[in-house]
Design brief:
This protein is of the alpha+beta class and 340 residues long. It folds into 2 domains: 222 residues, Rossmann fold; 91 residues, Nucleic acid-binding proteins (OB fold (Dihydrolipoamide Acetyltransferase, E2P), Beta Barrel), CATH 2.40.50. 26% of the residues lie in helices and 32% in strands. A 6-stranded mixed sheet has the order 6-7-8-3-9-10, sandwiched between helices. A hairpin with a 2-residue loop joins β14 and β15.
């Protein structure tokens, strides 16, 4: 498969700039996610890479070769969409074979490739079925089969799991990851689901308003977010943001402290760390972990603990955190202030 380099990509619809001076290098065999809220330009960027959309500025190259002016077919990129887009009147076998037939590949090679794709995806028993005789997960697998059957330069997936129910989504996630590793595919995976991106990716490109905010490994975007936007978009429940003064730091209001709920817990007797006291408003039990909402000044702060027995809503509660787990942001720019 191919490496992909995007340089200075700009894309507008009419007068509206959708993608703004985007630079990104994707390695051969890398699994990268485009993550961001709805409307930030993820799909547009995917279509620009595949050639379905033209760009206004910049260049796109695969393995160092300029692809900017080439058609989608010449770029040999496979796309998988959320709605599968299978041909309803064609059996699974023919759906998977379709791109090869279009390329007028010899029929015995088509048969071999379809058998290989079916085996790779566990679809052997379903080859003669029509799409409406398949479950959602099976349909999604056929769409992936159709995408990989012609050995594309890269596999681009646009929210491919969004239509599946929660348990199937989790299962398909691991399947996609296994397949990507096995075939050493270059995969670009578009999602608005931060958990999906964290679990799947080698790297995540976090986007906002057509601008990449940070490109890094899942653990880096989680632990060392570039700015407050990335910090708020990654992790669930969301990171708490507080004026530093509330946590006993003296900095004239120029700093925001960010602490993840998982790092903030009732810990009796600790005085060395960050400490926040207020009225416990609510205990939200989520199985193995319990989230605690505490009203600190006029900020609702969320902490977490393993055992909430003895905690009563209405009572005062002190939550503490190790300062090393906190992030600090410039209140003006939102950028993270790196520890000295
Ligand atoms: N064909 C189009 N014409 C005009 N505006 C578009 C078109 N396609 C997308 N947009 C706009 O571009 C922005 C980014 O859209 P999109 O790439 O679909 O976002 P995402 O996939 O991140 O949800 C949105 O504001 C959307 O309304
Ligand atoms: Mg989209």
């Amino acid at each position: 498969m191919a490496s992909i380099t995007l340089s200075g990509i700009g894309k507008s619809y009419g007068k509206v700039d959708i993608l703004k001076q985007l630079d990104l290098s994707i390695a051969d065999g890398e699994f990268i996610s485009f993550l961001g809220p709805s409307g930030c330009g993820k799909s547009t960027l995917l279509y620009c890479i595949s050639g379905l959309e033209d760009i206004n500025t910049g260049t796109i190259s695969f393995d160092g070769q300029d692809m900017t002016e080439l058609s989608p077919r010449e770029r040999n990129i496979a796309l998988v969409f959320q709605d599968y887009a299978l041909y309803p009147h064609m059996a699974v076998r023919d759906n998977i074979a379709f791109p090869l037939r279009q390329q007028k590949v010899a029929s015995d090679l088509i048969r071999r490739q379809v058998d290989w794709a079916a085996e790779t995806l566990g679809l052997e028993a379903l080859l003669d079925r029509l799409p409406n005789e398949l479950s959602g997960g099976q349909r999604q697998r056929v769409a992936v089969g159709r995408a990989i059957v012609r050995n594309p330069a890269a596999l681009l997936m646009d929210e491919p799991l969004s239509n599946l129910d929660a348990s199937l989504r989790v299962r398909m996630r691991s399947e996609i990851r296994r397949l990507q590793r096995e075939l050493k595919m270059t995969v670009i995976f578009v999602t608005h689901d931060q958990e999906e991106a964290l679990v799947l990716s080698d790297r995540i490109a976090v986007m906002k308003d057509g601008v990449i905010q940070q490109v890094a490994s899942p653990m880096t975007v989680y632990k060392e977010p570039a700015n407050q936007f990335v910090a708020s978009f990654i992790g669930s429940p969301q990171m708490n943001f507080l004026p530093a003064a509330l946590a006993g730091r003296n900095d004239n209001g120029g700093t925001i402290i960010g602490i993840r709920p998982h790092d903030l817990s009732p810990a009796a007797g600790r005085t060395d760390g960050i400490s926040l006291t207020g009225e416990l408003a609510f205990v939200e039990s989520a199985g193995p972990i319990h989230f605690l909402e505490v009203m600190v000044g006029d900020h609702m702060v969320k902490g977490a603990c393993a055992d909430p027995s003895g905690l009563t809503p209405g009572a005062q509660l002190t939550l503490t955190a190790d300062p090393r787990s906190a992030c600090f942001f410039d209140a003006q720019s939102g950028n993270r202030i790196k520890p000295q």
